[in-house]
Design a protein that fits this description.
The complex is a heterodimer of chains A (301) and B (421). Chain A is an alpha/beta fold and 301 residues long. Helix content of chain A is 35%, strand content 14%. In chain A, helix 3 crosses helix 4, helix 4 runs parallel beside helix 5 and helix 8 packs parallel to helix 9. Chain B is of the alpha/beta class and 421 residues long. The chains are: A alpha/beta (301), B alpha/beta (421).
């Protein structure tokens, strides 16, 4: 699938990025060559002032557009905009207000964009805020082919429909369970969303905090997909950034990219087609890892 | 019948049955042995087991023996530096979730032309408490060192078709495991054949390749052929020396890839110890048994210095849940009592969904630990994910239930706002 639409396709992105397309198990290069995985750098519009935040970013954290301009320079394939401010537990920002931010970000960069609402819904209103926000994003930026989410089995219909009509890709999030992930794809399929308009997220858990559940779920999904189960055949995203928020790892903020990238490599070897990263340093390290291997598809790293 | 089932699953050893003849035992052992042979380096309780694997993907069963991480020390290293390396190795140990994550072995490399230097190195680290890998291509030197390391069963490394006969005889004489390398497949297979022909069963394969891509390919092929195609000649654990890999990528990423992709021993240089913590955590994670999550003892735990008006919290006995919650409580300076309930090691979400979180068990812990005498209130804070059991828990315990946050990172805030002290 492609994320991001260029001018000729009705969008304003400089390029589209191809995600997925694997036809063999990850890093089984003796069997075949998969297209290279895609790397995203994250930008947040709200973060608790965090002692572990890299100094280079702590000044810009409260200005997400500036943050976008910085990470853009480091050449990620996709920029992942986390609009957490819409949760009553953070800034309780009005959805219309948050929409301006998305507009500004689309102006600040011409790369393909992932827009996420609240990835970890806790407050009872989080799910409805997500729905309201993502629907508005889908409608307002029709044609840009954004990756939007999360949608979950508890809350998906409105956003799924909006994504379908306005030609976006859905980030479908389930809880580290193979069958739940497949059932959700079936549910979405029954609403008219084909599996090539879905990116699956089964991440929950950092190193030492349950990452093994995610790794095994991804391996199982990829095995089933390659054996012909179409409902397991959507590309998968792995959020390595989970690792940078773990207090146990906060020894020294310069080491957090090590945790993030160790997890990223494990995620890639389990079949991740896309990895989302927090640190710019992590992007460079993961790229150097990927360059050790041959790739198919367009082949460009 | 029960014994036969256990035997078929590899859950019991054939020797445990007193009624079988030796011949039948041999046949059965062959049939139920894991496709990747078990190799023990060192001896006794300090020995490191590698291999013994039955599957290529952990969800198919589990990984049985964690990949070992070894630090290489060459015989060009001076005595002070050796001590510093040993200190650095110990400093990397992490105790978490009831386990100790650490470096498992030392690899002694004969890089100098000075035989005595290699012998001095062996003497310095002998008895330091780490099983050893002896890396030299000279059989006579190996023999001298093996004499010094009497009975310690180090892994003999540096074996190739050039010296295999002499090294194999040493392996047999000293009863050590032996690792073998080659520059391509047919040489490797014929070397393994030689060793097997000499009756050696504890073999470790060093896959050829000086790029990460080649090594990942070869490690994958060895494991998949051994497990799926029952290719007995490749049914052995593997060893990789990071120093042999020509690449410009950070070592912790190489280690990460090797740990998840079938390396049984990863040998790192001492400098890499700086980067070893994330891989240690990754290793702990992938070694978790998918079917038997680690659990902690149920009961009453004291966090900080609770008084009789301090909160009483409840959670399940899944080790990870316990670890996360107690860390958050301590980091946020919460003083409280924590009731840990037996759910067979399932997390809160799983045990609620699977009906394994029983309100009666909560009452039981309250009664058995005499909690009502310790606190002056009867308010129990339960995890957000157990909300639907609130009513039942109140009925069963007679306590008032407060539904806490979903995520323990919000616990201190929650208690300040909602739990009047």
């Amino acid at each position: 699938m492609k994320i991001g639409a260029t001018k000729s396709e009705g969008g304003s992105r400089r390029y589209s990025i191809t995600v997925g397309g694997a036809n063999t198990l990850p890093f089984y290069t003796f069997e075949g060559l998969n297209p290279p995985p895609v790397l995203a750098l994250e930008v947040y519009d709200y973060l608790n002032q965090h002692p572990t935040l890299a100094k280079s970013l702590s000044d810009v954290v409260m200005d997400p557009v500036e943050w976008v301009r910085i990470v853009d320079k480091f050449n990620p394939d996709i920029i992942n905009l986390n609009v957490r401010s819409i949760s009553p537990l953070t800034l309780n920002r009005e959805v219309k207000n948050a929409l301006h931010l998305v507009e500004d970000v689309l102006q600040a960069t011409d790369r393909p964009i992932m827009v996420t609402g609240i990835m970890d819904p806790i407050h009872s209103e989080d799910l409805s805020r997500n729905t309201e926000f993502l629907k508005l994003v889908a409608e307002s930026f029709k044609g840009e082919r954004l990756l939007i989410g999360p949608v979950t089995p508890e809350a998906y219909e409105t956003v799924a429909e909006a994504a379908l009509i306005n030609n976006h890709i859905l980030l479908a999030k389930t809880n580290m369970d193979v069958n739940q992930a497949i059932r959700f794809n079936e549910l979405l399929s029954s609403k008219g969303i084909p599996t090539d308009r879905i990116v699956m997220d089964v991440t929950t858990g950092a190193l030492g905090y349950g990452v093994e559940y995610t790794l095994s779920t991804m391996e199982r999904l990829r095995l089933r997909a390659l054996q012909g189960d179409r409902m397991a055949g959507s590309p998968m995203v792995f959020f390595a950034s989970e690792n940078v928020f773990i207090v146990e790892f906060k020894e020294d903020s310069s080491k957090l990219p090590l945790y993030e990238t160790t997890a990223a490599v494990a995620g890639l070897m389990s079949g991740a087609d896309m990895v989302s990263l927090f640190y710019v340093e992590s992007l460079n390290m993961v790229r150097s890892f990927l360059r050790e291997f041959p790739w198919g598809g367009d082949g460009n790293l | 019948m029960a014994f036969a089932f256990k035997l078929a699953q590899g859950a019991i050893e054939v020797d445990k049955c007193p009624f079988l003849t030796d011949e039948v035992k041999r046949t059965l052992t062959g049939l139920t042995a894991p496709p990747i042979a078990l190799v023990t380096i060192g001896r006794g309780s300090e020995g490191v087991k590698i291999g013994g694997e039955r599957v290529s993907f952990r969800h198919e069963d589990k990984f049985y023996n964690e990949p070992a991480i070894a630090v290489e020390i060459s015989d060009l290293t001076d005595v002070d530096s050796i001590q510093n390396i040993l200190k650095a190795i110990r400093y990397c140990e992490i105790k978490r979730m009831g386990q100790t994550l650490k470096i498992n072995m030392l690899a002694l490399r004969n890089l100098s032309n000075d035989d005595d230097a290699f012998i001095r190195l062996a003497e310095t680290v002998k008895g330091v408490g780490y099983p050893l890998i002896l890396s030299t291509e000279k059989p006579t030197l190996a023999s001298r060192v093996l004499d010094i390391l009497k009975g310690e069963r180090p892994l003999l490394h540096g074996v190739s078709s050039k010296n295999i006969t002499a090294m194999a005889l040493l392996a047999k004489r000293f009863n050590c495991p032996i690792s073998v390398k080659a520059s391509e497949w047919s040489e490797l297979l014929s070397s393994i054949d030689r060793l097997r022909g000499l009756g050696i069963s504890e073999i470790v394969i060093q896959p050829f390749g000086d790029t990460l891509k080649q090594l990942v390919e070869n490690l994958t092929l060895i494991r998949r052929l051994a497990i799926d195609k029952k290719f007995v000649k490749l049914g052995y654990p593997t060893i990789v020396f990071l120093g042999d890999i020509k690449s410009n990528i950070p070592e912790h990423l190489v280690i990460s890839a090797l740990l998840v992709r079938y390396a049984s021993i990863v040998v790192i240089k001492p400098e890499t110890l700086d980067l070893i913590r994330p891989p240690l955590l990754l290793r702990q994670s992938i070694m978790m048994d998918p079917r038997a999550p680690i659990s902690v003892k149920p009961g009453l735990y004291v966090i900080g210095e609770p008084k009789d008006d301090s909160p009483v919290l409840m959670t399940t006995n899944y080790a990870l849940t316990f670890h996360i919650l107690t860390n958050d409580l301590r980091n946020q300076n919460v003083n409280c009592y924590l009731l840990v309930v037996d759910t067979g090691g399932l997390s809160v979400a799983c045990s609620v969904a699977g009906n394994k979180l029983k309100p009666e068990s909560i009452k039981q812990v309250i009664d058995e630990t005499n909690l009502e005498a310790k606190v002056g209130h009867k308010t129990l804070v339960i995890p957000g994910r157990a909300a639907k059991l609130a009513g039942e828990i109140e009925d069963s315990t007679g306590w008032r239930v407060l539904i806490g946050p979903f995520n323990s990172k919000d616990i201190a805030d929650f208690l300040t706002k909602h739990h009047s002290s």
